[in-house]
Design a protein that fits this description.
eight-stranded mixed β-sheet, single chain, 19 strands, 21 helices, about 550 residues
Amino acid sequence: MTRPVEVVDELASEQDWLCCAGCRVLIYRKRFDRLAGVCPECGQHTQLVLTQRFEQLLDSGSITAVDTGQTIDDPLRFSDRIAYRNRLTDARHATALSAAVEVVSGTIGGYPVVVAAMDFRFLGGSMGAAEGEAVTRAAEAALRKRVPLLLVTASGGARMQEGAISLMQMAKTSNAMAALDEAGLLTITLVTDPTYGGVAASFATLSDVILAEPGARMGFAGPRVIEQTIRRKLPDGFQTAEFLLRHGLVDDVRPRAELASVLGVLATASAPVPRRWGEAETDPTRYHPDQLAMKSSADVVRLARDLDRPTTLDHLVNWVEGFVELHGDRTGFDCPAVVGGIAILDGLPVVVIGHQKGHDTAELVRRNFGMASPAGYRKAARLMRLAAKLRVPLVTLLDTPGAYPGLDAEEHGQSSAVAECMRIMGGLPSPVVSVITGEGGSGGALALGVANRVLMCENAMYSVISPEGCAAILWKTSEAATAAAEALRVDARSSLELGIVDGVVPEPNSGAHADPAEASELVRRAVVCALRELRTQDGQELVAERRQRFRRFGTEP
């Protein structure tokens, strides 16, 4: 895909108007400025100078420059048609910048951050010693202040005129990002157009969260190089933000007008939480089997599968003040049957992961009926690691017939993906609460269910296999599904008696489908009360308790 780097050209005869180079529509300059450089007709995002970028993202009056140090200008004394030193001088004069990266500290929505942003006008945003040093110092400033780091990228790649010195900046900045990982500090990348080469292959793609502006391109090699190498034309939209999102390589694509609010939600992941969090809630959970009515397995299976039960996304709409969904396994795939991200639950930052079915046939098909592929479990594993890094609680919501048993799933390692989720969950130093909200089907459900507290909705089901599958194997007929469900004891009361779950969340009369909002509120209260208790324990205690919980299954008392 090719397009003008400068999306908007000024008409010399009409100083108050601009022409979008994408759709060629005339735009009133003041309107264009109010829209932060976005065409109101086609939505193309122009490149911003750094002062505009900082003003657009950070709270007014909060911006303070961060010293980026001194570096060597011309280590190779390089010259082609023009001496490199002269190119630097010209770039500095044209942009009023000393390098392609500037670093500031400030606040987003009142939360402190450090921001390192790139300006493509400065030698194509290429990364030399000065740029690598600036990004590294930004990471070090975030480390000192114990605040998130936001990276805004725009680059053609490494700066050839600095040779191997430029190449070394990839390792230098990657090491700086690793130090933030070790310190448990959130890192965010905002990809703007274009982001290529050594920047894409180092700090830009190492962040916990990668957002992109619409249409922004990112890749290791540019499209011209790829076409010359493979000798065929690339598909339309190749390497664009939307392409990257479909392939699980970025977390989300957000228009410029939404970025400040999205980043504000993410920044709260590092915010302090009151010690007395959640104390006002009363726990609706039933902890003794005799508190629950006896239900026929046929009714339980029917109610657990009702399409009007609240889904993971329905619960999040009802529960949280802010939610940023994170997509993709970062290896080339995304799975819509698993959703997750960072949410703010009553002021507490949490990572939420859940199976997602749907309420109609179209959504069920798009979500693969809640049956996750290996990419879904690898996405979940990535979010579990994020919860561990940030030391925030993890909440998982289980509702799946089971992991997807397809050809592609086997080719891409379904078994290892499920196993890895269980291993990661078992060792998380964060509080973990899981709730079976509908179908808890086999290892596909358990992959998200290795928790400190496992709760189950009153009309949910939990089983090693579906009743139909069990009937087909052992009874040799699917018509014995009801008998199989009774024998498997899939209902919540039985799961509580067996100690498989720690508590059962009551549902409205007739079931969660009859009053989804009330059902969701009961689950929210149960989750808050469980987290309130678990938050008092340190990481080692949580891991030891969780492992012991599962260690005892199948042993004599």
